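Write out the 3D structure for:
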Amino acid sequence: MARLLADRPTDTLTIGDMARQLGHSHGAVRNAALTLVQRGEADQGGTVQPRFGANARTATAAQTAVISPPGTHAPRAQAARARTTIAAAATPRQTGPIRRAGGQMYHPRELADLPDVEALNRLRDADVPVLLYGPPGTGKTSLVEAAFPDLLTVAGDGDTTVGDLIGEYTQADSGGYVFQYGPLVTAMTEGRALLIDDATLISPKVLAALYPAMDGRRQIQVKAHKGETIKAEPGFYVVAGHNPGVHGAILTDALSSRFSVQIQIGTDYDLALALKIDARVVRVARHLARQVELGELGWAPQLRELLSYQKTEAVLGTNAALANLVGIAPEEDRQAVVDAVKKTVGVTKAAPLTLGKQLSASALRQRPVSTGSSHPGRSR
């Protein structure tokens, strides 16, 4: 890897570029590139599609192979070895927080005795498609973004078309029409990961355009563009997200059968406590989640709602944050949320956040500004 970069000192290369030139798997190339960057022996730029280039230390790194001490890396799955010329390639364990492309931090969780990001990378190297399912706000998209820095995403809904996946003609500045490739074609030709988010909201007829790229053919035909055949480069990988409780979400047999591994994602309430979210509100969420498991409720606050609570509390205070938590609950489950908040937090009133009467100009001048939590014993 270092030798490739050193031989092209003025170029910056994507993971797909390097994988094609080296003939190694996408995962092996990615790990090697990130290791060079961590050691200061290469430079990285970009977030959506990282690019790597040589620096003053790259040529020296290319002269001698550096072997990590035993135990610092875990061997890849046996199936991945068929796709790489490096026997027993190594994947560093990601146990600490990982910065996603948007700057947010992701905290890895355990999956099959591995950090979840490492497990997903092993599955990617073995060409095993993954379906993540669970309530909205549990971190499905965050996990995929943390695992795959080269990710492209399709946000699925009932209006998603084949053109949204493969591409379509758009009008150019000159007035003519040009074919603009979609994210599926881009991911295939660049050997990148593709997330089909909320896949079960997309029409099965539209999703069928994806299937030839995922099976043994690993290619699609772009009928709208001269019947062009697009072949998947090494590293191309599909992962999908499914929210079972969302209205209109249908997991068809055709879709389910394409994903050999299906992973349930729930909220880690211990993580919520570690992030210093009000412990009383976390208890409320745990209590409601148990009722959901028993089939008594359809909704409970997930990590997304708890983080939103924390931000709202910091700006508007505890009472407003509690009111907002009640207000975002589905109407059919709202009374249960109200009861849980009253019992656990100890407030006498819990109602959705609502505008009150109009304030006079004098009242506005005298009104104090909220600085966050109002209950005692909380340090911020």
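The mean pLDDT is 84.
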